[in-house]
């Protein structure tokens, strides 16, 4: 039994090379260049503070600490307003800043996918599009108690989104979507050779614009009838934080929740079928020669975050990864005592059905927004249990100053298989008993498992199964990687206590 590693000098690199393994999509899995199944345990770095020039502060020390806690994937937020601040002019200085962060991630063997982030469409109201891409026809903007309320009450915002989906011409006569595609092409060219960039998330939480009125009106009509409230009373209740919590309590019934979402499915899927799918097809066609093996991370409609089934087209010609988000209705509030695992479990089940339909990898691109609330430990464990059971990858929303002492950070700092040379049968870490179970049918070669507190790990059990076992500490902490090598086809079963 050896404590050093000769052939595998790091988690994601090729032997002694400074290059990282390129990833590709194979059916419902990510695989590396050796054909090993790869799983990602990740986090969002989406900086929204202009004082930091929209780059998360922390530098090399941040990436080192993330890697030491088992993070091997970052959803890195970039913005249309930063990439193309004036029509047709790409800011390569900004892309250079992003590239410097990607290099820091690579130094610590962390993969990245780039997220073209938007909330409320544009920097004018939230973040995303530049001012020149906002065509609101002079309509007013309105805000509610939550940032997302504006989607439902702001005429100017929805008009601007409509113009984007209609590919209306900007001031230079070029369509807004055409600008968006050209902007993405510039990004793809810039990062063409970046081996730790595994793909591009084309748009964060696509919102239907005025088409959302059909969803809103259907919800108000159906739920109002159920609860015997007028449309005006129901809308006022939803926009009042205190009254809203009472309403959410009534929606904790899984049957009622499912009935409501079923009513909303048709208008949500109508937007995806008529508008979002053609948009993604256009993007995929325009980017196909610039991917260099990278994947397109495709998000369904904003409304699927809460469990409405998606009609997104994830056909093979899109090099697609399904990248949904999963939030409960209490998101962006401090009412985590009202969090519902019944509602969340429904959402995760719905996402699983879409993945199985298309047989593509699923990366849970956003979940959480939990911060420091103690109730969120159990909720985070609920998420991760589903990630493990479905062999998904995930990127938690999101890193913030103070993340490393949060309940969720402790949950994510867990043992998991990073690369399996063979067929992964299942794995699970029980934080209550601190027991990690892993089983897979190994092919000749090496598999890699992230282990917190690796120095104290008793690995004699693995060696007794006829496998060679090597430990490699990760600098900056007590964690490391367990390399398990077999010379022939072999079933490996681990049952390890992680102190």
Automatic annotation (TrEMBL):
Gene Ontology terms, MF aspect: hydrolase activity, hydrolyzing O-glycosyl compounds
Keyword flag ATP-binding: no
Top-level taxon in the UniProt lineage: Bacteria
PROSITE patterns listed in its UniProt record: GLYCOSYL_HYDROL_F5
Biological processes per GO annotation: carbohydrate derivative catabolic process; cellulose catabolic process; lipid catabolic process
Sequence similarity: Belongs to the glycosyl hydrolase 5 (cellulase A) family.
Name of the protein in its database record: Uncharacterized protein
Origin species: Schleiferilactobacillus perolens DSM 12744
């Amino acid at each position: 039994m050896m404590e050093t590693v000769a052939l595998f000098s790091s988690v994601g690199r090729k032997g002694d090379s400074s290059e990282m393994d390129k990833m590709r999509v194979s059916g419902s899995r990510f695989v590396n260049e050796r054909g090993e199944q790869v799983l990602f345990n990740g986090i969002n770095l989406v900086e929204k503070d202009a004082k930091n020039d929209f780059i998360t502060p922390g530098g090399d020390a941040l990436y080192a600490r993330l890697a030491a806690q088992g993070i091997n994937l970052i959803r890195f937020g970039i913005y249309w307003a930063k990439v193309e601040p004036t029509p047709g002019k790409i800011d390569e200085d900004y892309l250079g800043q992003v590239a410097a962060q990607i290099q820091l991630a690579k130094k610590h063997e962390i993969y990245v996918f780039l997220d073209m982030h938007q909330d409320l469409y544009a920097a004018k109201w939230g973040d995303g599009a530049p001012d020149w891409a906002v065509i609101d026809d002079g309509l007013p903007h309105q805000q509610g108690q939550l940032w997302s309320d504006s989607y439902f009450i702001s005429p100017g915002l929805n008009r601007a989104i409509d113009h984007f989906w209609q590919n209306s011409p900007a001031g230079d006569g070029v369509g807004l979507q055409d600008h968006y595609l050209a902007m993405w092409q510039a990004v793809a060219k810039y990062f063409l050779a970046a081996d730790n960039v595994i793909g591009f998330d084309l748009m964060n939480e696509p919102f239907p614009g005025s088409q959302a009125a059909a969803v809103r009106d259907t919800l108000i009509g159906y739920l109002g009838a159920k609860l015997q409230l007028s449309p005006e009373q129901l809308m006022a209740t939803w926009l009042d934080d205190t009254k809203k919590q009472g309403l959410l309590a009534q929606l904790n019934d899984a049957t009622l929740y499912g009935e409501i979402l079923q009513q909303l499915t048709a208008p949500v899927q109508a937007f995806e079928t008529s508008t979002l799918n053609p948009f993604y097809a256009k993007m995929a066609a325009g980017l196909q020669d610039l991917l260099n093996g990278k994947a397109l991370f495709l998000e369904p409609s904003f409304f699927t975050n809460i469990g409405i089934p998606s009609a997104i087209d994830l056909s093979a010609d899109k090099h697609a990864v399904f990248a949904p988000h999963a939030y409960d209705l209490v998101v962006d509030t401090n009412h985590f005592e009202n969090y519902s695992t019944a509602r969340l479990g429904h959402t995760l089940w719905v996402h699983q059905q879409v993945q199985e339909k298309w047989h593509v990898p699923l990366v849970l691109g956003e979940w959480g927004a939990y911060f420091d609330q103690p109730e969120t430990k159990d909720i985070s464990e609920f998420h991760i249990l589903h990630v493990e059971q479905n062999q998904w990858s995930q990127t938690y929303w999101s890193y913030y100053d103070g993340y490393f002492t949060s309940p969720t950070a402790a949950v994510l700092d867990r043992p998991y298989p990073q690369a399996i040379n063979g067929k992964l049968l299942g794995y699970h870490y029980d934080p209550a008993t601190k027991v990690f179970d892993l089983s897979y049918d190994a092919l000749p070669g090496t598999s890699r498992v992230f282990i917190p507190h690796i120095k104290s790990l008793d690995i004699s059990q693995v060696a007794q199964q006829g496998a060679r076992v090597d430990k490699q500490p990760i600098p900056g902490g007590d964690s490391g990687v367990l390399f398990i090598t077999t010379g022939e086809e072999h079933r490996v079963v681990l049952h390890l206590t992680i102190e």
